[in-house]
Design brief:
Length: 208
């Protein structure tokens, strides 16, 4: 369904949500949030995954910008970077879901291929999953209390003001500056947190 997209205008008093979470400051050392769902959703999809979708997954899976399995933050940046990597490919969109989601997310976003398959490092690191599987994981398999929106890849993050989310209103990051900065901060912070958890950083860790 075709939607009209309004980009955020400089000067308006709006707050762009900069995280999948609702203003949470997560410790990188404890960034692995439980994403377990009901038993119906834990099994891999029995559907055949087309070769082009598998190829898209292989293209992004080896990219060092992403931390697969990290769920605390940055879904908007991951999806936007994937859109950049897959630019020029056919049938690439973004899927946003809002509502009563796992991990106290206000929203979550990932790349949608062929209108049916989702690539999401936060929720499934083994390969593409179907859209229905992805929504089930985001909502803990609840069939009500959520809203999904399929948008073009240039939509970056939903825009909020003091009254809540602005319907069909998204910010943009055409230069990928915010995207790259966000992924860098996640990557370095996550790696540092994991090293601290393993005890591999010494007293000079602040300098690394």
């Amino acid at each position: 369904m075709k939607k009209t997209i309004f980009l955020a205008i400089t000067g308006l008093v709006m707050v762009t949500l900069t995280s999948c979470n609702q203003d949470r400051d997560e410790s990188f050392a404890e960034a692995k949030v439980n994403t377990a769902t009901s038993t119906q959703m834990t099994a891999r999809s029995n559907f055949f995954i087309p070769n082009d979708v598998q190829n898209y997954y292989s293209t992004v899976q080896g990219n060092q910008d992403f931390r697969w399995g990290y769920t605390a933050d940055g879904c908007y940046a991951r999806a936007h970077k994937m859109a950049q990597i897959l630019s020029g490919k056919q049938n690439v969109q973004k899927i946003f879901v809002y509502g009563n989601l796992i991990n106290n997310w206000r929203y979550h976003v990932a790349i949608l291929i062929n209108g049916e398959y989702v690539i999401d490092p936060a929720l499934d690191s083994d390969g593409p999953i179907t859209k229905s599987e992805w929504i089930g994981k985001c909502t803990n398999n609840y069939s009500v209390g959520y809203q999904e929106e399929i948008q073009p890849t240039y939509c970056y993050a939903p825009v909020y003001n003091n009254y809540g989310r602005q319907a069909n209103t998204y910010s943009a990051d055409y230069s990928y500056v915010d995207t790259d900065n966000t992924l860098y901060n996640i990557r370095t912070g996550y790696d540092r947190g994991q090293a601290i958890a393993r005890g591999t950083f010494g007293s000079n860790s602040a300098r690394r």
